[in-house]
Amino acid sequence: MRWGLIGASTIAAEHMIGAIRASGGEIATVLSSSPDRAVSYAAKHDIPKGVTDLDAAMDGVDAVYISTTNEKHLPQAMAAIAAGKHVLCEKPLAMSVADAVTMVKAAQAANVTFGTNHHLRNAGSHLAIRELIATGRIGTVLSVRVFHAVHLPPHLQGWRIDNPDAGGGVIPDITVHDADTVRFHLGEDPVDVVAMKTASGMGQGVEDSAMSIWSMPSGAMVHTHESFTHRFAGSGIEVHGTEGSIIARGVMTQAPVGDVTLRFEGGEQAVEYATHGLYDRAVDLFSKACAGEGRPAADGVDGVKSLAVAAAVAKAAETGTRTAVDYGGV
Predict the structure, then answer these.
(1) With contact defined as beta carbons under 8 Å apart, do 228 and 152 qualify?
(2) Has residue 28 got a pLDDT over 90?
């Protein structure tokens, strides 16, 4: 499959270019708004063409990977869908739930594959956690605690910490990941949320820290903490049930290969899991879906729903009120 990269991004350089090539894919073009960056990025990563025109970036390709700033996702995805290209888009899909729904429905109407690049559900650690829950090892889930407060490295700061018009802030950047991860593990969608946010030292015009509590249809409660400013906190997820608990540390990063422990009445045990490349798995499943085999790891509806939870958290934090999650009819 021939790919066009829509965005000369860090995530493409560090993870997705290698994953696409590992799947047998060929990267034909890369798009940047800067002519110099388009050319230099293409040369550095052995991509034949670096361009600034979206039509040129889609010329002769089967699929596009979109990793531009968030406000550009909608027009770029819609153009790709109109051109008959399969689309793998970074999260959040769009600046609003309504726009994300528009993208997903357009892809459905055009009969092209649309995926959201939620990487964590592809990790061996999270696949193992999900299996423990699904097979009843911890009984009925009572609560989930996600701690995803990290320190955003300088090379990733930029628009994420100072540009609300581009979709900056910790809620669209990290809360949306946590929403997808919780949905993946529990197999249900949050009903409503309460939340608080703040700018605690890094954010300039956007929030850099947030905490929220979500209610689930099953009655389980979810607590999440996201931040760009916590240098030493570490990350992880805990899932507590009537018959046991899953305690996972170091599993909410782009290399989620920390420790997963199952605790139960008889003691505790370390959980073994596969350490495959999570981006490799994501691209492989997406490529197979494009060929009519299965579905992406996270499809467009998954992207809409994770965005909807993040949007509800943002609204709840802004208004100080309990806020229902609006999934836009999907």
Answers:
(1) yes
(2) yes
Query: Is residue 264 located within the same domain as residue 125?
Result: yes
CA neighbor of 239 nearest in space, from 158, 160, 301, 185: 185
List the strands of the sheet with 114-116, edge to edge.
49-51, 26-31, 2-6, 63-66, 86-89, 114-116
Q: In this structure, is the dihedral angle defined by the CA atoms of residues 170, 174, 176 and 178, taken in order, positive or negative?
A: negative
The pLDDT confidence band at residue 204, using thresholds 50, 70 and 90, is: confident
Give the CA dihedral 63, 107, 182, 234, nearest 10 degrees: 30
Strand order of the β-sheet with 244-249 is 267-270, 259-264, 244-249, 236-241, 141-149, 221-227, 209-215, 192-198, 323-324
Kindly list the distances between the CA atom of residue 92 and the CA atoms of 22, 307, 326, in Å, as whole numbers in the listed order. Answer: 25, 6, 15
152-194 residue pLDDT tens: 887 777 878 887 887 889 999 999 999 999 999 999 999 999 9
Q: Is there a domain that residue 201 lies in?
A: yes
With CA atoms as reference, report the closest residue to 179 among 312, 316, 319.
312
User: Do residue 220 and residue 113 come from a single domain?
Assistant: no
pLDDT in tens, 227-273: 999 999 999 999 999 999 999 999 998 899 999 999 999 999 999 99
Q: Looking at the 3D structure of the chain, how many domains does it have? A: 2
Answer yes or no: is 250 within a domain.
yes
The verdict on residue 285 lying in a domain is no
* Cα dist from 313 to 101, 113, 127, 230, whole Å: 19, 29, 26, 20
Is the domain of 234 the same as that of 91?
no
Domain of 26 in residue numbering reads as: 2-118
* SS3 of residue 129 by DSSP: helix
Among 118, 133, 158, the domain-final residue is: 118
77 and 214 in one domain? no
Q: What span, in angstroms and rounded, lies between the C-alpha atoms of 187 and 208?
A: 28
What average pLDDT does this structure show over 305-311?
98
Q: What is the mean pLDDT of residues 300-315?
A: 98
